[in-house]
Amino acid sequence: MEDRHAAAAASMVRVNGAPAEATLCTGSHLELRWRYSAGAAADRSLSLEGDVLGVEANGKEVVIRAFVADGAAAAKLCCAAGKAGGKRRRRRRDYVFEMADGEGAAAAWGDSLRRCLDSFGRPKRLFVLVNPFGGKRCANKIYEAEIKPMLEAAGVEITMQETQYRGHAREVASSLDLARYDGIVCVSGDGVLVEVVNGILQRTDWEEAIKMPIGIVPAGTGNGMAKSLLHAASETCSISDALFAIIRGHRQALDVCTIVQGEKRIFSVLSVTWGLVADIDIESEKYRWMGSARFDFYALVRIMNLRRYRGSIHFVPAPGYEAYGEAVKQVGSSIVEPLEQNGESRVCSYQGPPADFQGSDWRSMDGPFVAVCINNVPWAAETVMAAPEAKFSDGYMDAVVIRDCPKADLVALLLKMSDGSYVKSPYVTYLKVKSFRLSPGQLMENPRRGGIIDVDGEVIARGEATYGRNQHQDLMAYGPSLRLTVHQGLATVYCPK
Fold this sequence. Notes:
This protein is of the alpha+beta class.
C-alpha cells in the first residue's frame, strides 16, 4: 500500500456472512470493492475517503465502520454519484470482512486500509466543547448517543468539556494547549463557535492559534454556520453529516469581521443585526422552549407592532455595487479612523485587519430602517437564508437593508427568507461591502426608546427601554457608531468536500 496507484490483489472473503471476492483499489480514487459469489452480480463498493469512518482488524475479521448514503454500496461503483441528485441522507453501517486466508491476511488488510485513511490527513485528536444550555438543552444526550460513538468508530481520541456559563468557551479557547489537538469541535448552536474564535484571537499566539480548524455540530436553535457549510456541499443539516465532515478533515477558510467602538472590539463570523431581525432573535429568548418555531412566532408579533428606527449607515461598496446609497462628499475622520493598535494590546492579541479606507469612495443611507443586517455566511439559521450571495472567504460582507414597508408586504418578505428570494423585494437593498459603519438611532414611534445590536446571536449594545436592559451589562454602548471591517480567510472551519 505504499504506492497509492498500485492495485491490491483480490482476496476471497465473507462479507457480513456472504461469500465474495474483495479488492482494494488504490488508483486516483481509493475504493474497496467486492463481488458476491452468488446473488446480485453488480459490484459493491465503498469509497475510503467518502464513506469510511474507520477500520478495525480482529482475528481473521476486518470491520469497516462506514457512514453511507441510503443505497450506497448496494450496486454502484461511484459512491459520489448520488450527490448530483440533491441532498443525501446517510446512516451508520458496519461491514464485516472475514478473510479466507486467516488472521495474517486480516492484519495486512487492516494495516493497508488504515494507511489509506491516514493519507487523507484526518484529525486524530479533537477537543470537543458541549454546550448543555443551547437549543432544547439536549447537547449532552446528543454527545453520548451520536457524537462520541461516531468519533470512536473513526478512531479519534476525544477530550470533552462542557461549557458552564456564557463566555466559558471563550475562556477555554484563550488558554487551551492547542498543540495537543488537531481541531476543536463545538457542539452547540453558533454561540460556542463565536466564543471560540474570539478566545483564540485574544491569545498572544493568535497568529498560529487561528490556524486551528474548528468544527461545528448543530445542537442549538439557529445553527446558521453548520447549515451554510453543509448546504454548500448539498448535504443535509444534521448532526451526523456535520460530524462526518469533521472526521473527513476537509477545511474551509472563513472571513472574520472585526467590530470596533472606541477601544472596545469583538469578532464576528456569522452576522451583525439591528432592528427587526435583532429584536426577533433576542426578544424571542423567552420562548426558547418552542425551539426554532420561536422565531416564526415572534416575527409575527413584531410585525403586528412594527418598529422603525432612525439612524444612518456608511459603507465602502465592493466592485459592482458602487451605485448603491448616496455619495459621501467629505468623509469625516470618525468614519475612516484606523483601528487602535496602541500600547500593550498590540502585542497581546489580534487587533483587526490592517485596512485603510482613507481614500475609498464611501456611500451612505439614512433611515428610517426596519432592519439592517451584515452577513458573513448565507444562512442565519437552518430555515433562514439571509444572504444568498455570501461566500465563506471572499473578503466582503453582505449587507441587507430593509426599508419601511407595509406590514402585509413585510410578512410576504419574511416568508421568502427560507430560500433567500426575499432580497428581490423592492423594500430590500442587498449589496456587498468592504467596510461598514452603523450609527443606530431611536425608534420613530418612541424617541425615548432605542434598539438592540446583535452579533452572532449575542447582544453587544441595547438602547433605553429595550428587552433585558436592566439584566445585562453589554460590551458596547447604543448610539455611538460601530465600525466593521473584514479579514479575508482568517479562520478555518471543517467542512464537507
